[in-house]
Amino acid sequence: MKVVLLILSVVFVAGSACAQSWRDSLEHGKQLYNEGKYEEAYNSLIQAQKLAPEDVDLSKDIGNAAYRKGDYEMAEKAYRSVASSAEDSEQSSKQWHNIGNAQLQKKDYQAAIESYKQALRENPGNEDARYNLAEAKRRLKKQKQEQQKKNNDKNQDKNQDQKNQDQNQNQGDDQQNKNQSGDNNKENDGQQKSQSNDSGKNGKSQQQKGAEKLSSKKTERMLDELLKKEMSTKRKAVGTKSSSSEEVKSGKKW
Fold it and tell me: Which of 140, 144, 185, 187 is the one with CA 20 to 30 A from 89?
């Protein structure tokens, strides 16, 4: 009997020590939270949850500490856990409001809007949720406008880059065409000069040939004229002798 009592006593002491340990961590975590030491408070509350019995849920305190230290992802998970086990619609509305706040901080405005709507479904009199719903809608609208402006600026820059690229391409094509045109003109000038030179040479040769022909013809005409004159002189000379002979003969007949 003494042995059994001793065992039960050891178990009770161990259980009491364990209970005291998680409660101490919980109280220490709450104290740190009130002091604004949210990182330390969060760690202490997590430790308390690990040591606490299975039926003890510290999600609400953990969620608040996580939210304050800027871990909005963890805060949202903790608040969802509390909302799923809420005892009434008012408590559920508060937790959905907290979920919306965490989503609002993450700039997930569409999700925050849905969470605030759920909070109002649970409790239409939740004015904080109603106010934050309007704020979430305003921020979502602004976010879309900024995104649209960013897209427009991006498209504008893209169009400007394409325009500059096209202009550079056109300038390059114009320069290439200009260079080709210059080369063709030089080639044509070279051909024209060559043809002109050839023409000059041929012209000079033809002129020389023409002059030679003219000179030959002129010489022939001069020779012809000399021959004609010579023949005419001979004929005249013959004619005179013939007249003279007849006169002589005529004279002898007398």
Answer: 140
Q: Which residue has the tokens 């005892």?
A: 87
Alpha-carbon dihedral 206, 212, 215, 216, rounded to 10 degrees: -120
State yes or no: pLDDT of 218 exceeds 90. no
Q: Diameter of the chain by CA atoms?
A: 225
**Right CATH for 72-155 from 3.40.50.300, 1.10.1740.10, 1.25.40.10, 1.10.3720.10:** 1.25.40.10
Phi, psi angles (nearest 5°) of residue 87: -80, -25
Q: What angle do CA 114, 68, 135 make, to 5 degrees?
A: 35
Query: Per residue in 130-151, pLDDT tens?
Result: 999 999 999 999 999 999 998 9
Q: What is the pTM of this model?
A: 0.58
Neighbours of 86 (CB within 10 A): 15
CA nearest 131: which of 101, 102, 151?
A: 101
Sequence-separated (6 or more) residues with CB below 8 Å from residue 139: 104, 107, 109
Instruction: Of 35, 28, 88, give the one whose Cα is nearest residue 58.
Output: 28
Q: Which amino acid is at 220?
A: E
Domain boundaries, the chain: 15-70, 72-155
* DSSP conformation letters of 72-137: HHHHHHHHHHHHHT-SSHHHHHHHHHHHHHHHHHTT-HHHHHHHHHHHHHH-TT-HHHHHHHHHHH
